[in-house]
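Case study B.
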Amino acid sequence: MPVEIERKFLVASDAWREGASGTMMKQGYLARDPDRTVRIRIAGENAFVTIKGRRSGLARDEFEYAIPLSDAEELLRLCLPPLIEKTRFIVLHAGNRWEVDEFYGDNAGLIVAELELPSEDAAFEKPSWLGAEVSDDPRYFNSRLAQHQFKDW
Amino acid sequence: MPVEIERKFLVASDAWREGASGTMMKQGYLARDPDRTVRIRIAGENAFVTIKGRRSGLARDEFEYAIPLSDAEELLRLCLPPLIEKTRFIVLHAGNRWEVDEFYGDNAGLIVAELELPSEDAAFEKPSWLGAEVSDDPRYFNSRLAQHQFKDW
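Model:
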């Protein structure tokens, strides 16, 4: 079974921006039930439907399928409003591939750094710009950000 | 946009069974919201994720993607219980391809015949075994049958 293990942090400075390359993303949810989320995402010129199960610790079942971009544009209209818009930056540090998401719209001001790991106890080197860990804080789940936006926290 | 236009009927006799070939299907729902249903279906050796929008008259937006059978088996475990099991029979009549679904489990006894049409007012010849039309009766939506099973009607 494909399992996603992910740790999530705030950022403490803008130092991550140097040399980072970004992709615009727009995503919405067909289901936001924590036991079974269904996400439609457009990432640059690519699009995906992604199904995730309930989190257990840092791990979560994840199934992702590429779909035509034109379908995704229609499917985003079927999603529960509002949509989430963000730029995902890839930042390489000490052999790790960090994903730094900068949110827009009603989540503007929020920047989150994520690292996918092979196991829950895998060691990794923290970049200097890394802030507090929020892996266990459900407010930072993207499925929740669509309902409870950063501007209302 | 892919749109599904479908008329749905009960059956008045078993005459449809002659020469019909059937495929076992098992399906469940990740979302049953009438505005956005997400279905996982195993049909014989094939599997699909299917997303449908709200019905408008007889029509409904429909997006279907083939997925690996092994993924579908995992995904059925993420679905809202209970699952629906049925055999789908293909019955050819006067140039039309009828789908006759015979349900099992807690929907046993229910048999429904469906015809997909190119437009809402398309003419078609009714087979002798066709019963009352139930296109507009939400009790017969498969997403509803998973919640309100035939045995409890």
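The radius of gyration of chain B is 15 Å. The remaining cases will be described in the next quarterly update.
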